[in-house]
């Protein structure tokens, strides 16, 4: 199997723009707005809850920006409050008050494991090898399932409570962070993660897969019942992750660029488009514009803090993606 190595050398912090310094304005403002003193990442657009995705984004950003103190706080809170399942995966939502909160969101676990790998391998911040290996084993055992169209290929299951049978697998295409799958697969010897990355890259070449949620059946890709069929709040991360993975020439970026360009207001991007490409929602928030910039192959719009957890987080992630994936 051909493996593409996308591990790139990172520049020294002295060479980074001001926002990307460990105490740069945008990062400091992000922490002030969304990172509690105890390490909890607060989603202020979602009733102030915390979730595995947000904790993982915080870990990735803290490592990428050289902020060990923030990284350690975030990981300590995550272990104490979300690492409460017996299988090594995180509960997806806090406060954990019942079975629904204990469910898994596999992108949070994937990105957390990747952040732990980067912290160990690239920053030398303590050896997290045992923990990331445990997470990867759980991802392989619980979250990788056969593709009904080609049973020898593996799909990334977004949550353990969602349908995954021989006739139907519900998939969130924005959970495919190809670079994370590859680097974790290579670091832990988990060939299943490498196979999932390769198959996911092919999956995302199909325009029918470029939605928030899809249903993969033996007959092909269909709309996911009772879930968003738009290219919307989830799917807009697809070009971010592909660019970060060194796949700037992937067909999904051109598709995404067309969708973003459906905005009708100046300096806005279409954040939600229906399956026909009709714009349903648009925004001028820097984070969404930054992702659209990556899809177009140009430097991302600079962070403009104060536009909400999701937009502000995407703005920072896009800057790191440009630095590492270009």
Automatic annotation (TrEMBL):
GO biological process: cellulose catabolic process
Record's keyword annotation contains Lipid biosynthesis: no
Keyword Ribonucleoprotein: no
InterPro entries, alphabetized: 6-hairpin_glycosidase_sf, 6hp_glycosidase-like_sf, Glyco_hydro_8
Signal peptide residues on this chain, from the entry's feature table: 1-20
Reactions catalysed according to its record: Endohydrolysis of (1->4)-beta-D-glucosidic linkages in cellulose, lichenin and cereal beta-D-glucans
Keyword annotations from UniProtKB, A to Z: Carbohydrate metabolism, Cellulose degradation, Glycosidase, Hydrolase, Polysaccharide degradation, Signal
Main enzyme class: hydrolase
Database matches in Pfam families: Glyco_hydro_8
GO molecular function: cellulase activity
EC number of this enzyme: 3.2.1.4
Domain of life, per lineage: Bacteria
Family: Belongs to the glycosyl hydrolase 8 (cellulase D) family.
The protein's name: cellulase
The organism of origin for this protein: Ponticoccus litoralis
Lineage: Bacteria, Pseudomonadati, Pseudomonadota, Alphaproteobacteria, Rhodobacterales
């Amino acid at each position: 199997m051909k493996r593409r190595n996308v591990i790139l050398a990172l520049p020294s912090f002295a060479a980074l723009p001001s926002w990307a310094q460990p105490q740069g304005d945008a990062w400091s403002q992000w922490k002030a707005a969304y990172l509690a003193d105890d390490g909890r990442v607060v989603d202020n657009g979602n009733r102030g809850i915390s979730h595995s995705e947000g904790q993982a984004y915080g870990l990735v950003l803290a490592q990428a920006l050289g902020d060990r103190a923030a990284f350690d706080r975030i990981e300590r809170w995550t272990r104490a409050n979300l690492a409460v399942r017996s299988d090594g995966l995180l509960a997806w939502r806090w406060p954990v008050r019942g079975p629904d909160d204990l469910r898994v969101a596999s992108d949070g676990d994937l990105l957390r494991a990747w952040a732990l790998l980067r912290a160990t391998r690239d920053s030398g911040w303590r050896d997290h090898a045992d923990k990331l290996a445990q997470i990867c084993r759980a991802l392989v055992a619980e979250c990788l399932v056969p593709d009904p169209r080609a049973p020898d290929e593996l799909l990334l299951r977004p949550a353990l409570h969602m349908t995954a049978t021989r006739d139907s697998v519900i998939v969130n295409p924005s959970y495919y962070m190809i670079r994370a799958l590859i680097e974790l697969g290579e670091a832990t010897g988990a060939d299943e993660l490498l196979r999932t990355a390769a198959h996911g890259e092919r999956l995302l070449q199909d325009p029918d897969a470029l939605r928030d949620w899809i249903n993969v059946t033996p007959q092909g890709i269909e709309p996911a019942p009772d879930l968003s069929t738009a290219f919307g709040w989830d799917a807009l991360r697809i070009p971010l992750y592909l660019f970060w993975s060194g796949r700037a020439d992937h067909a999904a970026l051109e598709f995404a660029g067309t969708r973003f360009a459906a905005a009708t207001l100046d300096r806005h991007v279409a954040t939600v488009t229906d399956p026909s490409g009709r714009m349903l929602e648009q925004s001028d928030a820097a984070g969404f514009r930054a992702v659209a910039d990556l899809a177009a192959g140009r430097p991302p719009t600079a962070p403009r803090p104060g536009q909400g957890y999701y937009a502000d987080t995407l703005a920072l992630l896009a800057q790191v993606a440009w630095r590492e994936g270009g």
